[in-house]
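#random but structural
TW: two for the price of one
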Amino acid sequence: MSSKYETTETLDVKGQSCPMPIVKTKQAIDDLDAGDVLEVVATDSGSMSDIQGWADGTGGVELLDQVEDGDLYTHYVKKTE
């Protein structure tokens, strides 16, 4: 599957439910540099609203896109600072 975003790292949180996708996304973002894009691949449908809410309320990150493909949810989060 190709993406329109040049991702720096992919985080696989398939099979994990709330709050683990958010916890692991935050940990992974903390390890990236400004401008890097993290691709998060999840199977928890709640991750769509959870990651959006986390990104909206967190400085230094921007949610670029979310893609729902059947039971797979892919999120693209950019570290902005």
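TW: number two ↓
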Amino acid sequence: MTKRSESADSLIATILKAIDEIKGVDVQLLDLREIENTVCDYFIICSGTSNTHVNAISGIIQKQVGKLAKEKPWHVEGEGNAEWVLLDYINVVVHIFQKQTREFYNIESLWGDAKITSISS
């Protein structure tokens, strides 16, 4: 169990560093471990300023996680229109939004029971 936690912590650190490098906006980490019947342990949510920026954030996360953590996402969704890109690393799911799409879906309020940590750059 400890190995899984260390692995998740390392993956989260790598993802957050990648987001910071490409200037992702309004980054939040949602800890879902205390909530029953969740699909993963953590959500990382951030915004990009355009579809190009959203795709750049997605690209650098995949590149850095592949290089440093030797992991590929199990599933990637939304890169075509880049309004909301989802990267599924099983225990950690990354949501990269354009601002208006993030406001519309308001995932943070849907998971209001989660422990939410804002990540400042």
